[in-house]
Amino acid sequence: MIEIIMPLALCRFIASAAILGVAVATTARNAPLTQVVAVAGEPVYLPCDVATQDEDDAVLLVLWYREDLGTPIYSVDAREKDFGVAERWSDESVFASRAYFLPERRPAELGVDRVRATDQGIYRCRVDFKQAQTRNSRVNLTVIVPPNKMVITDDKGDTKQAIVGPYVEGDTFTLKCDVSGGRPRPWVKWFRNELETDTPVTTLQGTSVRGVLRVGPLTRADVRATLTCRASNHLRAHPIETTLTLDMNFPPLNVHILGSNQPLSASRRYDLLCQSSGSRPPASITWWKNGHRINNAKETLSTDGNTTTSTVSIQLNKADAGAKLACRASNPQMASVPAMEDDWLLDIQYVPETVVRLGTNLDPSNIREGSDVYFDCIIKAHPYVYKVEWRHNGKTLHHNVGQGIIISNQSLVLQGVGRKTAGNYTCVGFNAEGDGESKAFSLDVLYAPTCRSSQQRVHGVAKQERAHITCHVDANPPEVSFRWTFNNTANSNEVSDTYVSRSGTSSTVTYTPHTEMDYGTLLCWAHNRIGKQRVPCVYHIIAAGRPDQVHNCTVVNASLTSFGVRCSEGFNGGMPQSFLLEVREIVTQEIVANVSSAVPRFTAVGLVPGRTYAAAVLAYNAKGRGDPYPLRASTLRPPEKHHVHDKSLDLPRTAFQMSGAMSAAVGGGGVLMVVLVLFMIAVRQRCAKRKPRSAPPPSQPASPDKLREKDDSESDDRNPDIIPSDTDHNMQMDYYRQQQVSTISPPSSRARGSIAGVRGGLPAYCALRTAPPSESTPPSGIPPPAGFASGSCTLPRNAGTANERCIPMQHLRTLPRAHPHPHPHPHVHAHGHPHPPRDTPL
């Protein structure tokens, strides 16, 4: 009986449960349905209301179902725990760890991360309360799956990813954008520079679609245009897209040479520029000259890549005038498009090229002195010359008819050419490029020999002395022959060739005088193929002697410790002479300066300031010394020293008091000094009365030396710092007697010879002289130092006639015969002191 009752009870329970399940299912179907849309890969939140109106009520259990599954997929069990810490469970085959419940939201939500396409469906949320009735709600989850593949192809079927092209102007092309994948089926659109275009769409197999874009004809404005294919299937879904950049090639728009059609200078380096723009890719620029490529060009590109600049360094010459210089620009990617070209006909300017040409009727190897010569200047220049200039040995010639220089246009005429006319002639042409000078034309003027200037004309030779007299001539051609003659008072003789030597245009004769008749004149003639020397070279052979006295000596450039002396030289005695300055102390006669020089110009240094010295200037040669020229010279006095108060001395000092004994000593010393000064003044006045200064003879004129010494004496009297020194007059006379020494002894009889056409009556040959006559009174004052030993006459003279005078050489051609002196007795000095006989210059 029990066994029959148990199955019956179980059947009743199952029937009740089934009835209850049906009732619950019926109630769930009638629950409200909420639509939720999610994009695959994104999180989604499914709502479930768990709120209660009774504060004593609470949620015991939350169950989530998916309608295609009969069992729960997620639960929150708070039957034994507080709802905040309730146990959560998720089906591993559905959401697994991606699901989580958010009870704090209103309404509460079941969150699902990274939603999948398989998650799409209807979900039911069941909430069991402690007191309230169970609540059910439904959610319809729709999952959007974006498209996942896009392929773009061109007309050739080639897949394009970033760049399409390159195309050229006028091209037309089509692009196809195929999109596959996604739920629901996606839409496809083309955008050009972000602007939507009409896009025909066709459906392919499955869920794939195709959008087609037709582009063209293309222009330059289409370069770098962006073409974008975009596909999506929901507003919330992120679209997929591919953007292509349109690439195009363009030929150059222009090409031009910068600064063209300007004249260029020959032999000058230029950097020429050529620019081309509009080519894509950048143009390639080449340079050509008369069809020949120039390879040293360098290219630069602008920052925007649109302009190419080519630089070529080129040096042109005159031969490039009229040549065609071309600059060509081409696109290396468009070989079928001809290159653009800009050309330039070169205008080359150059410095004038000049050539000097001698007249056609003239023989350059036979231009003789006195003939007329003319030149032509042949000029090539661009631009043409604006001035032509002629130069002789580098110096500019000017039109001067008086001097025989005639310049007309590009011709030069030289009238009556001479040896100075010979030399190098050039013509210079001037234009804007500069001045061009021709090669020098050497004009060789032939002339007969002439005597060369600046030769030694007077030779002083002693008896039995061998002399070498050289004759120098100027001649062209220089092949010359010489002839020598000797003239004296008696005859004229040819000089034998054995005594003559020749070297170029010079000839030397060896001559030795033995007697008085061997002194005379040597004449030298030369001749070449042009002719014979018209005027001979004349050389006077005289007896060698000491040089004459210098004259016109002055003191210059005096300073504290130095002064200078300048003199004029006298006759050199027929031999080279030098000069000597001796400076002595006036009282002690001590030499303080001794200066020698080849010319009578001296500077004495190292002297004492404010002192007067005795100076003497004399000339000397190999035969001895000439007469000294005495003079006085003074150095400048130093400036007076003025006391300047030194403030540094204004220091506190101890009081000083003079005692009585000291005052008496100072006063006595002062009185003694006054008496001593008065005594010296009295003695000086007495000495002055006993020795009066002698006056010079009234008939004798004062020489410059006397005037100078007088001035010095007066300056000494006026200068209280200098004590005058009065030297005994007899000492002066003794000094001058010592100077009357002759270097050549005269013959016993009167000489009968003559020189250069001056016939008998001349005493002898005498050196040129500028010294004062022997009758003159020596200068007053301090005599010259005794060391100045020299003679007065250097040539032979007649000892028996003391009144005869020496004749200067410059007067030998014009002086008349000498006459005896009307007073043959010896000269007597004004004070009665006899003087020795002395040769006197004219």
Automatic annotation (TrEMBL):
Q: Compositional bias of type Basic and acidic residues: which residue ranges? A: 705-730
Q: Where is the Fibronectin type-III domain?
A: 546-639
Location in the cell reads: Membrane
Q: Segment Disordered: which positions?
A: 688-730, 769-793, 815-842
Q: Does the keyword Disulfide bond apply?
A: yes
Which key words are in the record? Disulfide bond, Membrane, Transmembrane, Transmembrane helix
* GO cellular component terms attached to this protein's record: membrane
PROSITE patterns attached to this UniProt entry: FN3 (PS50853), IG_LIKE (PS50835)
The record, for Pfam families, names: C2-set_2 (PF08205), Ig_3 (PF13927), V-set (PF07686)
Q: Where is the composition biased (Basic residues)?
A: 815-835
Q: Which residues form the Ig-like domain?
A: 26-142, 147-245, 251-338, 352-442, 449-528
Give the residue spans that cross the bilayer.
661-683
Membrane topology term: Single-pass membrane protein
Record's keyword annotation contains Transmembrane helix: yes
Q: Give the protein's recorded name.
A: Hemicentin-2
Name the species this protein comes from.
Answer: Vanessa tameamea (Kamehameha butterfly)
